[in-house]
Every structure is written in structure tokens, then in C-alpha cells.
Amino acid sequence: MTFLSPFTALCTVGFFARLSYALARSPVLPLFALYLGAGPEAIGFAVGISTVTGIFFKLPSGALSDVIGRKKTMLIGLVVFAVLPFAYLLIDNYQTLIIVRFIHGLATAIYGPVSMAVVADVAGERKGELLSWFSSVTIIGNLLGAPLGGFILNTSPGSAGPAIGDFHLAYLASGFAGVMALVLALGVLKNDQKTENHHSLREASMRFVSGIKEVASDRRVIITSNMEGLQNMTVGALEAFLPIYAVTVVGLTAFQAGLLWGVQVVATIVSKPIMGKTSDEYGRKPLITAGLFLCAVSFGAIPLLSNFYLLGLAALIFGLGEALVTSSSAALIIDICKEKHFGAAMGTFGTIFDIGHAAGPILAGVLIARFDYLPTFWLMAAMLLAAIPVFMATAKSNKDAS
User: Fold this and answer.
1) Number of folded domains in the chain?
2) What are the b/e assignments for 365-395, b being 16+ CB within 10 Å?
């Protein structure tokens, strides 16, 4: 249990980092884009653009952490968490929002794969369980961030919607949480007396390239990552358009829209550690398959619903499906990869993950603008269902084979 203290510290830092990011995201971001005059396509692009950053930077960040050390790489990401929320206070047009969102995406692009690699370094045979515990604990920040952001926006009187001051208050809260994450991390790093390996520039470059090549060429890594990428496509679409659908179509308040997202996150948090331990004992593949199915069914049901409680039930089922997929997919990839390339593995996984997350709101925005919510959600749900037989036929888990 020697890793318990650093593991707990990592979870605490992750909590504040994710709280900061969630406060700046759903439902605040899509409603802020709407306030700036954006239509469905533009809203989807605004939500997805920060994830595009991860497509370009997650794999290099993860591989770089294998070379220069996790602590230095994590610190860079946490600086972005602390600084960027305050930039939203200067935004007065949609174009500036896009620029800030793209830069803000560096926070999770750098921090995300590195923190997962740190957990993998200490997890031993408990990778599924500890990766799931880490994810569940840190995304409690997401759970609190969504309804808290909605509550802040809901303080504006009248029916005209949130005022610019409400958005500024939400982003100030986001900045405070980001600063807390950075301060706590500096304390942890200062007290950590472990030294990290240093390499010559040539050796570092060779390790960097070797890690990327070995991981990116493994078909099992790519297939498993694609399953989570597809599932995360629907997560991104919900993140962008569940608040808009709830407020503009169903007639709910911004606070209720935030609660819907919170219900989804609660379901994920509660079930993830259990599912992670189950995957350690019985195999990853069945859980991923079941999760894809639950996500597809609940996602497709949302545009048929016009009641807060039914939407909450759909969000709960979707969250359970997400937990089934995410508790097993990252652990399966770690099972496959060598320890020295954990960072590159999580970077590859994160890149494909972010491609799905970025494509979700952008694709949904384009389709909603042309076909409305029902055909859009059904088409994306069908993509998840179609992926299931492909995954079952091609992916192979060592645990499933044993």
C-alpha cells in the first residue's frame, strides 16, 4: 500500500482540475455560445474544438512523459487548467471563444494521458480497478461542475436567460478550482523526493519515437481505442446538445439541464470501480460490448422524451453504459502494452478518444441543423450498434482468452 498516499494526492489534484474544466464546459459553454449568437452547428464546433486539441497533443504528451518524467509533464497541463478560465472573461464574440476553447483543450490533452500513466505505473495487477477508482474519484469534479455551472447561470432573474455577469461568475469559479489544482500539485511535487530518469537528447528522441511506433502499430490498441472513441462521440454530442434540447425543446431550466448531466456522471462514478474490478476478474470484452449497447439505446431514446425524470433515467442508463466501456477499455490497452510505453499507450488511447469526443458535437450540430434531433440521435446510436459486431469479431483480450 505504499502507493496509497501519492494515489490519493493524484485523485485530489484531479478532482479540482476536472471541476475547473467541467465548470467551463457543460452546460455553461453551449449556453454561452448560444448567448453569443451561435447556431447549432457553431455550438457543436465550440464544444468540440477543445477536444480537437487533444487529437494533436495527447499522444505526444503521453510519449513525452515516458521520456522526461510524469511530474514535469503534469505540471504543464495544470498550469493551463489554472490560467485559461480567466481568459473567458475577455470574450465578447464567438471567434474569440473558439480560440480560447482550443487553447484550453491543452489542459486535458497534456494532463489526461500522463495521469492515467501514473496510475498504471503503480497499479500492478489491479489496473482495471485502480484506473476505474481514479477516474471515478476525479470525475466527481465533473459531477459537481455541471449542476454548479447551471446553478450559477440560473441566478439571473427573469426569463431572458443568463446575463454576461452570470457567465463571468461561472468562469471565475472555474479559474479558482484550476488554481487549487495547481497549488495542490506543487505541494505534492515538492514533497515527493523521488527522482525521475534523465536521458540524452538522442536517447530521449529514440525512446519517444519508439514508444509511439510500438503502440500505434498494435491493432488491438487501435480497435479498443476506437470503441471508446465511438462511445465518446455520443458523450460529446450529449454534452453539447442535451442542455440545448432540455432548455429550448423541453422547457427545462439551466439548473435542471445541469442536473441531467450530473445524473449521467453519478451513474458512471458509482458503477465504474465495480465494473473495473469485474473486468480484472472476468475479462474486458463482455463489459465493453454491453456498455456500447446501453449507450446506443439510451442515447437514441432521448429525443423521444419530454419529461425531466424520463430524461434523467435515460442519462442514468447512458452513464452506466459509459462506465462499462471506460472501466475496461483503458485497462485492456494497458494489459497489451509494455510498462515503459504506458504513457504512449494512454496518449494513443486519448487521441482516438478525443477524435470521437470532438466529432460528436460537431457531427450532431451539422445533422441537427438539417434534420432535427430525432434522426440525428438515431443515426449516431446506429453507429454504436454497428460497431458491436466488429469489436466482438476482432478485439481479443488476454483475460478473455485465458
Assistant:
1) 1
2) bebbeeeebeebbbebbeebeebbeebeeeb
Task: Give the model's confidence band at 195: pLDDT under 50 very low, under 70 low, under 90 confident, else very high.
Answer: very low
**Per-residue pLDDT tens digits for 136-161:** 777 788 778 888 888 888 754 445 67
Look at residue 357 and tell me whether its pLDDT is greater than 60: yes
pLDDT of 322 strictly over 80: yes
Of the candidates 242, 264, 256, the one whose C-alpha atom is nearest the C-alpha of residue 380 is 242
Amino acid of residue 239: E
* pLDDT for position 202: 60
pLDDT reading at 34 higher than 80: yes
Residue at 81 is within a domain: yes
Does 1 fall in a domain? Answer: no
CA distances from 140 to 35, 38, 231, 272 (A): 28, 30, 20, 12
Q: Which residue has the cell 474490478?
A: 277
CB-based contact 323:267 (threshold 8 Å):
yes
Spatial distance between the Cα atoms of 182 and 40, rounded to a whole number of angstroms? 34
Cell triple for 268: 458512471
152: left (phi over 0), alpha (psi -120 to 50) or beta: alpha
- Residues 252, 63: Cα–Cα separation, whole Å: 44
**What is the C-alpha separation between 383 and 388, in angstroms, rounded?**
9
- What tens digit of pLDDT does each residue of 380-389 get? 999 999 988 8
Residue 241 falls within a domain, yes or no? yes
44: Cβ contacts below 8 Å, ≥ 6 apart: 237, 240, 241, 361, 362, 363, 364, 365, 366, 368
Domain residues for the domain of 16 are 9-401
CATH number of the domain enclosing 378: 1.20.1250.20
Instruction: Cell numbers for 115, please give them.
Output: 495521469
Report yes or no on 3 lying in a domain: no
Is pLDDT at 171 greater than 90 in this prediction?
A: yes
